[in-house]
Design a protein that fits this description.
This protein has 134 residues and is mostly beta strands. The chain contains 1 helix and 8 strands. The radius of gyration is 18 Å and the shape is elongated.
Length: 134
């Protein structure tokens, strides 16, 4: 949403539907790169290393590896930390079979989003065997 200054929100019903469809089709993930120390971060106001506010948005390639998670609440059971190739960590919803979702598995940003809210959705890059589960 943007503000036009005339008291209206500037959001029309027809244009909102188009923007939503475009964002689902593109599936882009942006991170921030500190212009001072070149640290990568995700959705921060300050650089976690040097404290600078000079953060530049960069587009991620969308590939990463599922990381270890600790202390998971029941509401966040389907959220996993994903260590992206650019060096930042983001919590994502993983689209794939439950037996295959574990630390060390490669994932890629999905081209569609679900009712996940603000969390990105990723898919597994490779087939993971059942490991004896039948």
């Amino acid at each position: 949403m943007f503000h036009t200054g005339s008291g209206s929100t500037g959001l029309r019903i027809g244009s909102a539907a188009v923007r939503t469809e475009e964002s689902v089709a593109d599936a882009e993930l942006y991170y921030q790169l500190c212009r001072w120390c070149h640290t990568t971060t995700f959705q921060r106001l300050l650089c976690p290393t040097c404290g600078s506010t000079d953060l530049a948005p960069e587009r991620s390639e969308g590939e990463g590896v599922i990381s270890v998670r600790r202390g998971v609440a029941a509401a966040d059971a389907d959220l996993w930390p994903v260590y992206m190739a650019e060096g930042f960590v983001v919590r994502c919803r993983v689209d794939g079979p439950l037996h295959a979702v574990r630390p060390g598995v490669r994932v890629r940003l999905a081209s569609r989003s679900t009712a996940s809210g603000r969390q990105p959705v990723v898919r597994l890059c490779e087939e993971v065997p059942l490991d004896g589960w039948i």
